[in-house]
Amino acid sequence: MSCGPASKTHDMPSIEASEFRQAMGNLASGVAIVATGTAEERRGLTVSSVTSICMEPPCLLVGINAASQTHDAILANGVFGVSILSGDQADLAQRFAGQYGVRGIERFNVGRWDQGILDVPILQTAVCTLECVLHRHEIVGSHGIFVGRIVATRSDGGDPLINLRGKLRKLR
């Protein structure tokens, strides 16, 4: 007896990317900057695909476009930081999302950054930061799925920035 998908459902075509984006836009998500590296080799980008996956060991999952510089830098460094943004940091989110045309190390010219215990960039004014050792990586379609084992956190409280229906919003 087979437990896998029936062949006729396995062969069904996927929905279009625009339909998927519209559907997933209904799921509110936090907004964070994922970063790695030191000095001139720092790289980072905005993500809204961060989720906890287990408590033992404490791990989170982050999805990052495989074509990005940050993707390759995390693989090379084996560590990364996640800075969960506050409701007042939409401009910083847009900067790290590439909406202002700023790339690479230049993205870090705005905001106050520390190097955490893993020597990864973490935002001083973030609602919360998590430092991760790369536990697992896999390519799924256009993105790399990173599982990070969390070794340090810092939480300053405050209301997080969220992404809902393609717009950055503050919680009220």
Describe this structure in words.
The chain has four helices and twelve strands, in the order H-H-E-E-E-E-E-H-E-H-E-E-E-E-E-E. The strands form three sheets. The chain has a seven-stranded antiparallel sheet, with helices on both faces. The chain has 172 residues and is α+β, with helices and mostly antiparallel strands. It has helices spanning 7-10, 17-24, 69-77, 90-96; strands at 29-30, 32-36, 43-47, 50-55, 58-65, 79-84, 113-115, 121-123, 128-140, 143-155, 161-164, 167-170.
How are the SSEs placed, and which strands pair?
Blueprint: H1 7-10, H2 17-24, E1 29-30, E2 32-36, E3 43-47, E4 50-55, E5 58-65, H3 69-77, E6 79-84, H4 90-96, E7 113-115, E8 121-123, E9 128-140, E10 143-155, E11 161-164, E12 167-170
Antiparallel strand pairs: 1-11, 2-3, 2-6, 4-5, 5-10, 6-9, 7-8, 9-10, 11-12
* CATH architectural label: Roll
Beta strands, count: 12
Unreliable sequence segments:
none
Largest sheet: 7 strands, antiparallel
Total domains? 1
Shape: globular
Q: Largest sheet, order of strands side by side?
A: 3-2-6-9-10-5-4
In DSSP terms (H or I, runs of 4 or more residues), the helix count works out at: 4
Distance between the termini: 52 Å
Fraction of residues in β-strands:
35-45%
| CATH homologous superfamily heading | Electron Transport, Fmn-binding Protein, Chain A
Would you tell me the overall average pLDDT? Answer: 92
Order of helices and strands: HHEEEEEHEHEEEEEE
Q: According to CATH, what is the topology?
A: Pnp Oxidase, Chain A
Class based on secondary structure composition and strand pairing: alpha+beta
Rg, nearest Å:
17 Å
Question: Can you give the helix content as a percent range?
Answer: 10-25%
CATH class: Mainly Beta
